[in-house]
Specification:
Length: 108
């Protein structure tokens, strides 16, 4: 499986009225609404949100103040594909971090 890349996709307000990040494993894709990420970061008073694409069915978003050991998140992300029924269910083996200040998502 190739590593998932996160790319910023911006639509004009006339087209859709929101901005999204897309993620793909070559078979399946997921979209994250930048406004919802911003709202969640503000609501939880977090400068950063950690994003773990658990599978093509779910994505965990964890505020920075709930993360005690980043290496444990990374280990969980790498090892969970053993729990999934088929390899295509893995969207990414990486952990990502959303920054409230910049509005960007980066691979950790």
């Amino acid at each position: 499986m190739e590593d998932c890349m996160v790319e910023g996709v911006e639509f004009s307000a006339e087209e859709s009225g929101y901005e999204i990040f897309t993620m793909s494993n070559g078979h399946y894709s997921a979209m994250l609404d930048k406004e919802k990420l911003r709202d969640l970061a503000e609501e939880t008073q977090s400068s950063f949100l950690y994003i773990i694409p658990v599978s093509i069915y779910e994505i965990l978003i964890i505020p920075e103040n709930n993360v005690f050991d980043l290496s444990e998140l990374q280990e969980f992300s790498r090892n969970r594909k053993e729990l999934l029924d088929f390899e295509e269910a893995v969207l990414s083996e990486r952990v990502y971090r959303y920054s409230l200040e910049s509005g960007d998502i980066n691979i950790i």
